[in-house]
Amino acid sequence: MPADIHATTLTLDSHIDIRWPEPPDPLAEGPMRVDFPKMQRGGLRAAVFIAYVGQGKRDAAGHAAAAERVDAMLRHIQGRADGEARRFCTTPDELEAAHAAGALAVLSAVENGYAMGHDLGAPARWRALGACYLTLTHDGHNDLADSARPQARLGDTPEEHGGLSALGRQAVGALNDAGMLVDVSHVAKSGMLQAAALSRSPIVATHTACRALCDHPRGIDDEQLDALKAVGGLAQITAMPSFLKKVPEGQRNPAGVEDMVDHVDHAVRRIGLEHVGLSSDFDGGGAVEGWQNPAETPNLTAALIKRGYGAREIGLLWSGNFLRLWRQAQAIAR
Ligand SMILES: [Zn+2]
Prior knowledge:
The protein is α/β, with parallel strands linked by helices. The protein has a single domain, classed as Alpha-Beta Barrel (TIM Barrel). The chain is built from twelve helices and nine strands. Strands 1, 2, 3, 4, 5 and 6 form a six-stranded parallel beta sheet that branches. Strands 7-8-9 form a three-stranded parallel beta sheet. β7 (204-208), α8 and β8 (234-238) form a beta-alpha-beta unit. The chain is globular. The mean pLDDT is 98. Bound molecules: zinc ion. Zinc ion binds next to loops.
């Protein structure tokens, strides 16, 4: 039964943005796509909330402001949990225990390595605050790596570092040492492939899609999918309509859960079920027909079941693969 499978699966969404500053109360059903009542209603059991900072000026003041913002956001996310109905989970074991206890799981991560400036001690500090991954870039190059979407408004050239910078390579090492996952969403293909080869634990693209089906610069192509498989990594297909389906400019994008599952199917056929997962990018632009907010999460599970995925496969897609990567990241920390 679809409902049984959904009800018993540890459903984890690996990328959810929050409003900042002045986030609305997540305990009340409110204006954001994601709040705890909608998670509860739709059986979304675990959410990775993101401490995000947009790319800004790469000087001391810009880096300091970004670091301060991320620190405050990580502390806020931790404060969304009460240790009972909502548990803040800093390890895979804590996440599984929260699920077993029937609690919602709150996780955190950092989006945009801009927030570390040139401080290689930042990953260890973020890890101590519970963060499970760092997305190396956002839109626009930073001092760590080239972005998949250079920003002319920031003075970006098409390519600045040729992938990862020397600092970016050190940052991957610092993330490994801290036990944080390396997220290559938003990173240029060159840097993504370099990070895959360099990282001592498998890398993840926490919110992406397949360029073979929709040629968007934020997606990853088949060569990148193959690189993820080669290192044991993971592509989390996300609910961003523009990554999933091409429509003529100015037209509404009708992408839905079926389109998401098309991208899941493509990645699974190309690199195997163990290297594919799911995310929404809710409150960061994500939402498709049938999965507009966490209350509608059963629709995505039902679409997977319709395509022939069983309970075991759905468990791996929703969280099993992410847990495996997170465990590997913890295991090589030092
Ligand atoms: Zn993003």
